[in-house]
Amino acid sequence: MKRQIVESKSVLIVDDDNAVRESIQRVLEQKGYEVAAVADGEQATARFAPEKIDLVLLDLNLPRGSGWDVFERLTTRYPFVPVIIITGMANQYQTALAAGVSALIEKPVHVPALLKTMGEVLAEPKEARLRRMCGRQDDTRYVRPPKPAANGKSVGAAIKK
Fold this sequence. Notes:
Blueprint: E1 10-14, H1 18-30, E2 34-38, H2 41-47, E3 55-58, H3 67-77, E4 83-87, H4 93-99, E5 103-106, H5 111-123, H6 126-133, E6 141-143, E7 147-148, E8 154-155, E9 159-160
Parallel strand pairs: 1-2, 1-3, 3-4, 4-5, 5-6
Antiparallel strand pairs: 6-9, 7-8
Helix pairs in contact: 2-3
């Protein structure tokens, strides 16, 4: 397998599920990302430094501060930070769209769709993120979990922009 090297981008993973956090961290590190990972909202806010973090992967169901609270705290202070919400909670797309989230990915996470979405979000100009945050652009990416095929294997993930 060919290893894709990413131009030293750093990611903060915020998820209370240790297995999810570690598996995403492992995949991203194999792809060349620098990764920091935390388990709750307070750690996320304390650990975030805009000069060191290029992207935040944020779960919504967190102890010590919900994901939406963390999103608000981070983006109020740092509106250019791209945030991808990764959640198992249903019916979050409209809230994500209204909040100006860069992308919403539903669990279980389909790794190729995650990597593709991350690449798109990281390549996006800061001005586009700011327009989304201000409600002038409604292009939040939405990635649903892959649907199981008849043989039980997953078939792709739907990406809506």
